[in-house]
């Protein structure tokens, strides 16, 4: 892979941020967010060793996964977008992870619909760390109760928390909401006796700040695949 390939550049950013945080680079998973880009683009990244891909739109993702499964059976698929209750069956059947659980009904449906031949669906609870009415995610003060209920569902495995903060300029400002999510994760784990090993936080513009605050999974789209603004 050329040194200036976007995948090399993003891996380098992760490595440098991890070093600055005194963490092992391998403690941060790179999720390549391939929404709006075709299966052929995913295959090019898979050929370079990228294994985990994130998608936002159910039908687009199901088509892409079906196209790629024969040649790339080991890819891991993460659903990261807003999820409507009437689309949970396809997500339960085709994905390995869901990061956007923000209400119990959604989690119950995913658990009920997870096919018996598959292992448990790995899930994160999405928290609204900025407290704006327009954004999805459970309010921070309701996250602990939701986590306890989700953790009790038989076909799900609760792994941690996810957030999408409002865009902010500068590392210091970007770190604040990520720090809040980490503190909340620690509190929820302690209160409920849960092992929550995942903080899904950090995107193309703020992955360094997220890693400094303990992110274990960064969701990177445009820095890998390019601009999406004209694609959907
Ligand atoms: C699109 C998307 C991303 C990737 O965003 P970029 O800024 O392109 O890296 C990450 N997380 C979620 C939930 C997304 O919808």
Could you say what the CATH topology is called?
Answer: TIM Barrel
Please report the total strand number as a whole number.
8
**Side-by-side strand order of the widest sheet:** 7-6-5-4-3-2-1-8
Q: How far is the N terminus from the C terminus?
A: 29 Å
Roughly what is the average pLDDT, rounded to an integer?
Answer: 96
Structure commentary:
The chain has 232 residues and is of the alpha/beta class. The protein has a single domain (6-225), classed as Alanine racemase (TIM Barrel, Alpha-Beta Barrel). Helix content is 40%, strand content 16%. It is built from nine helices and eight strands. Strands 7-6-5-4-3-2-1-8 form an eight-stranded parallel sheet. Helix 4 packs across helix 5 and helix 6 (143-151) crosses helix 7. 41% of the residues are buried. The structure holds pyridoxal-5'-phosphate.
Topology:
Blueprint: H1 6-20, E1 29-33, H2 39-47, E2 52-55, H3 58-68, E3 76-79, H4 88-94, E4 97-101, H5 104-113, E5 121-126, H6 143-151, E6 156-162, H7 171-192, E7 198-200, H8 207-212, E8 217-220, H9 222-225
Parallel strand pairs: 1-2, 1-8, 2-3, 3-4, 4-5, 5-6, 6-7
Helix pairs in contact: 4-5, 6-7
The structure holds pyridoxal-5'-phosphate.
